[in-house]
Each structure stands twice: as C-alpha cells, then as structure tokens.
Specification:
By secondary structure, the protein is α/β, with parallel strands linked by helices. Helix content is about 35%, strand content about 30%. The longest helix has 15 residues. It is elongated and about 70 Å long. One of its GO terms (biological process) is phosphorelay signal transduction system.
C-alpha cells in the first residue's frame, strides 16, 4: 500500500522511531492538489481539508506490514485512511492518506511544518512520539505502560494455529504493542530470536505436536519474559518452567495484554 504523509511524520527522527526503519530512504516527493493542511481541533497535529491550494509531502511507495501497523497505531482513532491522487516527479499516483473527520478540523488555523521542523529535534521527536503513541489511553491501558517514546514494546507470537495467531496479533496491536511473528514452529521461533530480541513472548506449548520447550529454555537463558499459552494447565509445564506465567486456552485477549503489560513493567 502506498501512503502519503504530510505532517509530523515528515520529521525523519519521528518516522524512524515509529516505523522502526532508517529515515524515509525510499520516499518520493509528492504533492496533493486541492487540499489544505490545518490544525486538528484540541491538538498540535494536522489534518487535511479540501480547498484551494496544495500540500507538499512524501509518498511511501511500499510499507512493510509491521511499519504500517506502528504508523497506524501512532495516528490513532482520530484518523482514517482515505484514497488520494498525488503528483510525483514520476507522474500521478494513487495512495492513501490519514485524515480526520472534517468536523474535527479547524479550517481557520493552518498547520505549518516549517514551525514544527524548527523546534529542537529531540524535543520534537519525544513529544510527537509519546503523544501519538499514547493516544486513546483508555483503549490501550491494558498494555500496562508498555508504550515507549521509542515505539511500542515488541511482543513475539509463537503459535501454530493461524486463526489463534491472528486473534492474538489483533489484540496486541489494539493494545499498542508491536508484533513479531507469528512463528509456527520451534525452528522459526529460534531463528526469529536470533534476528531480533523481543520485549516479551506469547508461547504456545504445543507446536503441531512438537513441544516448544527449547524456545522456553532460550527465553529463560536470555532473560526475556514470556507467557505460556496452553490447554493443559500448569501441570503440563516443562521441567524448569513451573514458575512461568500461564494462560489457559481459550484465554481472554484483555487478560493476555494485561499480563504482558505487567511483565514489561517488571522487566523495565
């Protein structure tokens, strides 16, 4: 999906912290004709309204799913993605842009990226990231403080049932977490751990008939907190992991995110 950005995400430090990648390397200069950039009521952030003029921004031709999820979490519930046709040096392109409902916009107050860019970079980045990531606090409170200025805490999902993995991923994203995986086998999980360190892990005890004990051992050795999800109860825990946090399947997604929030706070 191509995305047109026009506001706080134009700051490379903000974008890098949120999207988890180097600043805007593949971005294309783009302009949106027939719109104005104005203040979102009650906030320091911008939105777009139709009107005479043009808005300069950047076109992101492709976003990795994880980067898109993190940016969507940053934008929060006030914004929705809408189709727009932008002009680029390579010709017109269809894309999507995050916009708020027109009733939320204040057309009398223009939002100026130049003023935003002249603030001290660290102050801008910290304020923008923390304000955006902590939007809709009530909905995300179950994350238990796992949202950080540097982006959401990453939770690795180790689950072999595709439907369960999708439900867990949705619950984590709704609670403000970043998601790694899912990994459906011990081999996939171990390879993922070698590539990147998660902040916490949701670990299915039985992976297609294979026990996930080697993964639990690796997590314990590396000091990574984890939750074991199992239908067998605490009595079925592998040796050396009897003190692990356990959620009995089927579990409540709110309970899962609450437990992960507690584990993140304890590990901080």
């Amino acid at each position: 999906m191509a995305v047109f950005i026009y506001g706080t995400l134009l700051d490379p430090a903000v974008f890098a912290r949120l999207a988890g990648r180097r600043p805007l390397r593949r971005a294309i200069p783009a302009g949106l004709i027939g719109y104005r950039r104005v203040r979102l009521r009650g906030t320091p952030y911008p939105t777009l309204v139709e009107g005479a003029g043009a808005v300069a921004g950047l076109l992101l031709p492709r976003l990795a799913p994880e980067a898109f999820r993190r940016l969507a979490a940053y934008e929060g519930p006030s914004y929705t993605l809408r189709p727009v046709r932008v002009g680029t040096p390579r010709g017109p392109r269809w894309a999507r842009a995050w916009m708020a409902a027109r009733r939320r916009a204040d057309p009398s107050v223009l939002w100026e990226p130049e003023r935003f860019a002249t603030q001290p970079r660290e102050k801008v980045s910290d304020h923008a990231c923390s304000a955006g990531l902590h939007a809709e606090v009530g909905r995300r409170r179950s994350a238990g403080g796992c949202l950080m200025v540097h982006g959401p805490r990453k939770v690795m999902v180790v689950e072999d049932e595709a439907l369960v993995a999708m439900l867990v991923e949705d619950a984590l994203i709704d609670a403000g977490f970043g998601v790694m995986g899912p990994a459906a086998t011990v081999e996939e999980a171990m390879a993922m751990l070698d590539r990147e360190r998660p902040d916490a892990v949701v670990l299915d005890l039985n992976l297609a008939g294979e026990t996930s004990t080697p993964v639990a051992d690796a997590l314990a050795a590396r000091g990574i907190p984890y939750v074991i999800a199992t239908g067998y109860g605490a009595s079925g825990l592998p040796a050396g992991h009897q003190d692990a946090t356990v959620l009995a399947k089927p579990y409540d997604p709110a309970e899962l995110t609450s437990v992960l929030g507690r584990l993140c706070r304890q590990a901080a």
